[in-house]
Structure formats: structure tokens, C-alpha cells
Amino acid sequence: MSVTDLEKPSVEQARATSFYEASARARIRLLLDPASFVEFIGPEQREVSPHLKLFDLPEQFDDGIIVGRGSLAGSPVFIAAQEGRFMGGAFGEVHGAKLTGLLRAAKELKSIPVLILFDTGGVRLQEANAGELAIAEIMRAVIEARTAGVKVIGLIGGRSGCYGGGGLIAGCCSALAVSEQGRIAVSGPEVIETNRGVEEFDSRDRALVWRTMGGKHRRLIGGAELFADDTVQAFREAALELLETTAGFGIDTLNAEQSRLEDRLQRFGACRDAVEIWAAEGVADAASVPALPADQFIELADKVRRIARDAR
Amino acid sequence: MEDLSFHHQARSRAGGTRRMAIIGVVASGNLEVLAERVLPETECRLEIKTAAEGFGQVWDAVVADFVERYSPGGLKFSINDGGARPDTVSLRLAQAVRLMAEDEP
């Protein structure tokens, strides 16, 4: 064994990497089959934001999102990954157009699923109108791709979570997997506090933020189909399971989703805190949920709630 | 924002055959480096866009030291900088050269 062999971790070792800590490029490289990724509109094409220089702000060559194709356990997939460290992974004009284009390609081909690795605070404020339009275009493109028979799977476990328009797009996906760190919501903690006051939501109370928007709560109330431990390997397995188990999409799916949400509102609408919801769902020691290790939580969640596969 | 450009003669050609590599992210105190094998074998060029204005002399020193240490002949580096410290810049440049020396991914 040479020195290089010792330095190079095996694929299995590399996939034990924290999903949260990894860059968007590392997530794609490790999640897919080795060396299978081919990027579309790569950084060498310099398709940067046309807006940021007006604000005297630095650009990034890929505008904070990487899109392309590759294979997952031998099957072709389209994949997009947001870089949450560049402007909070926010959607701008080019960033959004890259994801829209990927989804439209998937719609045309009909047979290749799409993985979206969300890591976003929402719309980039410096290009707000273009960003809002991008969100609308992407939501439409997700639904059109699903109508054409394409599965669109969201994976959420990045430092910026999945907020704002990202949360809306996630809600349109065929299925979601989330880690504890991967928060899903529309308005972020600070936004809620600013608009509704600290009595409504104290954004500095981190435990409150995690149990309201964090992955465990999303899994327990049915907002996400699967809970994944914070490793690339866990997200890879989750993506494979969701591709396997996710059903088709049509008007029946939407009706089932509507009644699922109505039922949820009726049962939990009066709850003051996530812990009350977990208790109402039959979790024996609801207060202990935030501290549960991933494997124990998955066991608990599978007992409490199997997601209705006809909804979403 | 400030644009800086440096051109150096390198002792020898940079190792490897990779055409392109990218490393880093544009964030506060960080930067991205895009390396491309597009120049004659003994030339090296760096094009920098930086959010921190007025540090041309520091960049000049960091770049000269980098070219001397790694001899990145044939490579063009395009940098988007979010105000990284000189040691971070040196690290990213070294990572980019090392990626270019690896096999195609």
C-alpha cells in the first residue's frame, strides 16, 4: 500500500462525512456513484448573477447552485445542490433558472428522477423580483415534472436549512428526507419575531426553533417522509428508499394531501408547542424527543407515524 | 469591489492533466478559486475580484510566494474573494494546484 492509498479514504469512509458540514460539491460527489457526476453550466462558463455587481457584492461562478446528472446505485438521476454558505444559498435569477432548466429537462425525458439538495434561506434580497419569479417558475416546473411521471425528491440537511421560497418548493416535491439540522419552514425565526412579536416566537430560544422547524418535528407531523442521520451515507440511503417507495402523482394525490393537512390542522391547531403535538401523536415521553439519538428517533417515528403514501 | 490581475513566469508546467478545478466558496473570510489549464506551459495568470479594497500589495506578495512555491505553469486562476485572509488565500491556491494534479474525477 502506497502513501496515497493511506491518504485516500474509501468511498464508505468518505460517505460517513457530515452532510451538514460538507460543501454542495462534496455532497453531490459523495452522494452519487463515484465519478458519475456531470455538471451542466459549470463554473468555467461563468454564468454569474447579473445583479450582484450593481450592489458591489462578490459573485460566485456557479451562482450558488450546482446542477447536473449522475447515477445513484447504477440508475440515472438529475441532481441539484445549493451552496448554503454563498449568500445563504438564496435564490437569484441565474440560480433559479438553473434549477428550472433541470426540472424542465426531467419533464421532457419523463423517466429520470430529480434530487434537490436544498440549503437555502429563500429569495436573495438583492434580486428579489427575479428571485420570487424563480420560485414560482420552479414550483410550476416541479409540479409539471411530477405530472409527467418524474419523482422529485428533496434532501434537507444543510446549514441554511430550507426557508422562504425553498420551503414552498420543498412542499411541492414528491417526498422529502430531513436531518435534525435541516430545518424546514417558510418564515424564519427572526422574521416571525419581527412581524408578530417575541411573545409569538422568541428567535433566540434555539431549542424552540429546533423543535418547531427542525427535522424531528417535520418527520413527526408528516412534513417529511424520512428522517436521516447527519451523514451523506444516510441521505444516500434515504434518497434510494424514497425513489423506491414514492407513488405516482395525480388529482387523487392532491385530494389526499388536502385532507391530510385538514386533519392535521383539526387535531393539532390548538397546540401551543411542538411537544404537545408529539404527545397527542402518542409519543410516551414527548419531552425527551429533542435529545434522542438519530437511530432511536427513527425507531420511534416509524412506530408513531408511517406517512400516508397516497398523499403529498 | 476591486479587480486585480497578476501575470508570472513559472519555472515549469503544473503537474497533472486535469483541465479545470474549483475549490472554496464565496463567503465572508473565504474565497473560491477556479483553475483552468489554458496558458502556455511556463505562464501563470491570476484574475482576482475582491470585496476588500486596497490590499493590492498583500495580494502581490501572496501570489508571488505561491508561484515561487508551486510553479503552476500553464494555469489561469480566477478568484472571487469575500475578504479572505492571506493564509486562507494561500491554502485555497495550493488546494487548486493539488486538484489539478489529480486524475480527472
The DSSP helix count of chain B reads 2
Average of pLDDT of chain B = 96
Task: Please name the two chains that share the biggest interface, counting residues whose Cβ lies under 8 Å from a Cβ on the partner chain.
Answer: A-B, 20 and 18 residues
The shape of chain B, in one word, is globular
Strands of the biggest beta sheet of chain A: in what spatial order? Answer: 1-2-3-4-5-6-7
**CATH topology group of chain A:** 2-enoyl-CoA Hydratase, Chain A, domain 1
Low-pLDDT sequence parts of chain A: none
Kindly give the count of domains of chain A: 1
Distance between the termini of chain A: 50 Å
Structural class of chain B: alpha+beta
CATH homologous superfamily annotation of chain A:
2-enoyl-CoA Hydratase, Chain A, domain 1
Pairing-aware structural class of the strands and helices of chain A? alpha/beta
Just name the CATH architecture of chain A. Answer: Alpha-Beta Complex
Query: Helices and strands of chain B, in N-to-C order?
Result: EEEEHEH
The rounded distance between the terminal residues' Cα atoms of chain B is: 33 Å
What is the averaged pLDDT score of chain A?
Answer: 94
Bin the strand percentage of chain A.
5-15%
Radius of gyration of chain B: 13 Å
Order of helices and strands of chain A: HHHEEEHEHEHEHHHEHHHH
The CATH class of chain A? Alpha Beta
What profile does the largest beta sheet of chain A have?
A: 7 strands, mixed
Q: Could you list some keywords that capture this structure?
A:
heterodimer; A: 312 residues; alpha/beta; 13 helices; B: 5-stranded mixed β-sheet; 30% helix
List the helices and strands and how they pair.
The complex is a heterodimer of chains A (about 300) and B (about 100).
Chain A: H1 3-7, H2 11-15, H3 24-31, E1 38-40, E2 65-72, E3 75-82, H4 93-109, E4 114-118, H5 128-147, E5 152-156, H6 165-172, E6 175-178, H7 189-196, H8 206-213, H9 215-220, E7 226-227, H10 232-245, H11 251-268, H12 274-280, H13 294-304
Parallel strand pairs in A: 3-4, 4-5, 5-6, 6-7
Antiparallel strand pairs in A: 1-2, 2-3
Helix pairs in contact in A: 4-5, 5-6
Chain B: E1 2-9, E2 20-24, E3 31-37, E4 43-50, H1 56-70, E5 75-81, H2 86-101
Parallel strand pairs in B: 4-5
Antiparallel strand pairs in B: 1-4, 2-3, 3-5
Helix pairs in contact in B: 1-2
